[in-house]
Specification:
This protein has about 280 residues and is α/β, with parallel strands linked by helices. It has eight helices and 16 strands. The longest helix has 16 residues. It starts with 7 loop residues before the first strand and ends with a strand.
Amino acid sequence: MAAFNYNFAIICRVPNALKNRSVGSDHYPDGIDIEKAKQEYETIREVLKNCDINIIELVEDESYPDCCFVDDTAVVIGNTALIARPGHTSRQGEVGEIRKVLKGDLRMNVVEIQNAKATLDGGDVLFTGKEIFVGVGKRTNDFGAQAVAEAFPEYAVSKVNFAKCEALHLKDVFNMAGRNVMAVAPGPDVQAVLRQMQDVADYPYHVMQMDSRMATDMLYVNGHLIHHVRNEMGDKSYGMLDQSIDPEVQRTEVLMNQLTFEGRGVSALALLCLKLDTYTCLIHS
């Protein structure tokens, strides 16, 4: 299996409840501009289509204000999908519809977490294409990390202590920007986690040291790198992409400031999958 090659993305429309009932809405004192958020979502949907991705679009569920951040609901690598058990109780019901799509529509090998004490957010699982890092801290515990190791025995799975990091999820501050290229957010707490990762890593990675979390928020898929526009990333971080990203990688810039919680929006809005079957677009209600 070639890493970072996908043909499906599960995405979910933005609910109106995101405006002031989302887990992250307290970072927006005046509330989220829901119309702009929906426009940002539509942009991501079209960008993914242009990356040769078939879209499976879920209808928003007002009972789950954060349902558009589907990456937290499962960990998908190859033909295996591990259903997550979100650490925040308000999000645990989101996995039901995702499970149906992964098992019924995509017919993937769906794995359930057996340990009742386990918690796992997909946003705490970073797949580098060669190995897996799991951030254990606020939303994911040791039992959840163990479930990842059991679901993907073909990869080395390393736990890193994320409890003292200011960010909520591992992928708020770490993302892959290409094969062997890792974008890293600033801050001594993040650097401490990076040192842990480097100590346990089985492979070397080129580290792009960005100067904001938003600059770290990106998605590498099918030879495309989706990232924020320059004025959201900052000149220094944008220049880092110019220096470090292979010229053959097609870069797409998106304006996204309403759906970026804790520095994570682009990387959380799609659950990417690789399946040999072909669909065009499915709408689930």
